Amino acid sequence: MTRHALFALSAVALLALGSGCSARAEKASLPEAGAAARAVRTVKPAQRVETGLSRATGSLRSRHEAVLAARMTGQIHRIRVQVGDRVKAGQPLVEMDASAVRIGLQNARAMERLATARLAEADREVERGRQLFEAQGMPQSAWDQVRTGREIAAAQLDQARAAVKMAEQQLADATITAPFAGVVTGKFQNAGNTVTLMPISPILALTDVDALEAKLALPEALDPYVEVGQTVEGTTTPGGRTFQAKVRVKAGVVDPMTRTIEVLADVVDPAGLLPGTIVTADLGRWGENGRLFLPATAVRTDGKSSWVFVVAAGKAERREVAVAPVHPGTVAVKEGIAAGADVVVDPGTLAAGDAVVALSK
């Protein structure tokens, strides 16, 4: 092959190589000319929180609990009950040694009789003094003294009667009775022990197991949906026993640490349930009331504002929203989006204006 032929073949090869590189370069730049739309999962805002997300945890407790102590300093004479005993309201539970109290009551009654006799004598003196004073046989000063003596005797009688009542009350206090029907849940003293009024010495603990209430921690965002008188469903943990309770009290303050509101609900049928049991209460489903609900993953925040991305005309649009936590994984949207919006569930690095294709969740 001649030199001219080799030169021609080389030129042709270089032209072919240049054409191939140019074609590959054009093919690599095609995606840059038109980027593919990103597929995103979307969900429409819910108008009610479903049962599984509307739960509050808490525990059962008795509406009536008391730790009983003596109203006097002294020695325990007898304890009539044991832990686990059921008692009725007014039933005697503990007897204190009341020997000194009985002596004091006898003395008070004797003083009452003495004061009664002195008042009777003063009444007679007043009658005699009146006759003498009216007959001008007694000076004014003496007449005033007689009447004052009668007033003193009357006051002494009132004082003696009060002392009798006090002694009688002390004797009654020597017997500790049940303030309500319930079960003895604690015994802290024994017969023969000396207890004091100050500081208080606990003797027995009493719990009414037939009047239970559920103490629940209501998430702050669910406050508008729970009202006094509302019936809630509850389940014990463990055990899985279901029960119903009626909301009696809803606190008017939010705990600054947990962002929850205390709710007390009376258990409708407490038979078989025990105070202290952990429970989960289903606060029900809430109908339309101006709020919408979204998965928490749909919301982005920078600490100053919160927003979501919605799909509109094939692009991601940023919408500023006001939200409040309802339950782990769920937020209530106060304002910012409509009920029919397609909200991106997990936007990740999505930015406003990105081309997107909505995939329903």
Outline the structure in words.
With 361 residues, the chain is an alpha+beta fold. The chain has helices spanning 3-28, 30-33, 99-134, 140-173, and strands at residues 38-43, 55-62, 65-69, 74-79, 86-87, 92-96, 175-177, 182-187, 194-195, 202-207, 212-219, 231-237, 242-250, 260-267, 278-282, 292-295, 300-301, 306-312, 315-327, 330-335, 343-344, 356-360. The strands form five sheets. It has a six-stranded antiparallel beta barrel. A hairpin with a 2-residue loop joins strand 18 and strand 19. Helix 3 packs antiparallel against helix 4. It is elongated. The two termini are 71 Å apart. The relative contact order is 0.19.
Would you spell out the secondary-structure blueprint of this structure?
Blueprint: H1 3-28, H2 30-33, E1 38-43, E2 55-62, E3 65-69, E4 74-79, E5 86-87, E6 92-96, H3 99-134, H4 140-173, E7 175-177, E8 182-187, E9 194-195, E10 202-207, E11 212-219, E12 231-237, E13 242-250, E14 260-267, E15 278-282, E16 292-295, E17 300-301, E18 306-312, E19 315-327, E20 330-335, E21 343-344, E22 356-360
Parallel strand pairs: 1-22
Antiparallel strand pairs: 1-21, 2-11, 2-15, 3-10, 4-6, 4-9, 5-8, 6-7, 8-10, 11-14, 12-13, 12-15, 13-14, 16-20, 17-18, 18-19, 19-20
Helix pairs in contact: 3-4
Number of continuous helical runs: 4
As a whole number of angstroms, the C-alpha radius of gyration is: 44 Å
Cα-to-Cα separation, first versus last residue? 71 Å
Give the strand tally.
22
Mean pLDDT, as a whole number? 85
Order of the strands making up the biggest sheet: 2-11-14-13-12-15
Taken from the alpha-carbon principal axes, the silhouette is elongated
The proportion of strand residues reads 25-35%
Structural class: alpha+beta
SSE series: HHEEEEEEHHEEEEEEEEEEEEEEEE
Low-confidence stretches: 1-33
Summarize the main sheet. 6 strands, antiparallel, barrel
Percent of residues in helices? 25-40%
